[in-house]
Amino acid sequence: MLHGVYGAAVTMDGAARQHEHIAKNLAHAQIPGYRRTQLTQGTFDDSLQETTADLIARSSAGTRGLEESHDFTTGPLEQTDRPLDIAIQGEGFFVIGERDEPLYTRNGSFTIDQQGNIVTKDGRTLQGTNGPMTLPINTVVEDIAVDQSGRVSVNQIELGRIKIVQFEDNEKLVNVGTTLFRNPNESGSEITQLDVQNTRVQQGSLEKSNVHPVQELVELIAVQRRYDAASRTLRTLMRTVEQRINLQRGT
């Protein structure tokens, strides 16, 4: 019976965590480049690989097989016709920030700061293959052109090429903020330069988030029902335990 109580409590805990992730996804559904978060269950093969120590740890932790991860499938493109809205078609990430602590994103909504750097909305510098992407002071935004390989020109004068990198395994990236990711292994061995055969840059467009609100709402209803069912089961089991205790006491 105690196993049933434990199972119901674990189900409620998992449903509550899934509810939090769905709410977060819905809240960020309109942010360009946002990658939805999800909780994944362990596979049958994972269970076969568990050791006795793993089983004991899992039993005490009360969180069976629920691991947070990001869904890196691409989102739909939205044409904005804004010169500094840039989308990546295919694999890869923009490189943001300083060389010693680069961050990575699919959010291609950029602007220009007072020094002429192309920056994100929060002021982080977009990196080119030869350093920060910098434009001449007083550049008119409408004069900026970005071709499909990421080369940036102003009035037909080439100024550099946007750096785009890709990883062998995106799942190893660590989320920083809303649309930024950090590579925990900054050795560089997992980074490769843009493969121009498979990746294109599209100026005047933004990649939207990969959140599908209707799908999230359907999942939200399913999670709520799962939580309610587990809650009813837990209450029933607790009443049974209480009755059993009272019988043993002779009351």
Automatic annotation (TrEMBL):
GO BP annotations listed: bacterial-type flagellum-dependent swarming motility
Pfam family, one: Flg_bbr_C
Compartments, as annotated in UniProt: Bacterial flagellum basal body
Region described as Disordered: spans on this chain: 59-78
Keyword Transport attributed: no
Ranges of residues in domain Flagellar hook protein FlgE/F/G-like D1: 87-154
InterPro entries: Flagellar_FlgE/F/G, Flg_bb/hook_C_dom, FlgE/F/G-like, LlgE_F_G-like_D1
Record's keyword terms, sorted: Bacterial flagellum, Cell projection, Cilium, Flagellum
GO-annotated cellular components: bacterial-type flagellum basal body
All copies of domain Flagellar basal-body/hook protein C-terminal, residue ranges: 202-236
Domain of life, source organism: Bacteria
PANTHER family the record matches: FLAGELLAR BASAL-BODY ROD PROTEIN FLGG, FLAGELLAR PROTEIN
Family per record: Belongs to the flagella basal body rod proteins family.
Designated name of the protein: Flagellar basal-body rod protein FlgG
Biological source species: Thalassoglobus polymorphus
Origin organism lineage: Bacteria, Pseudomonadati, Planctomycetota, Planctomycetia, Planctomycetales
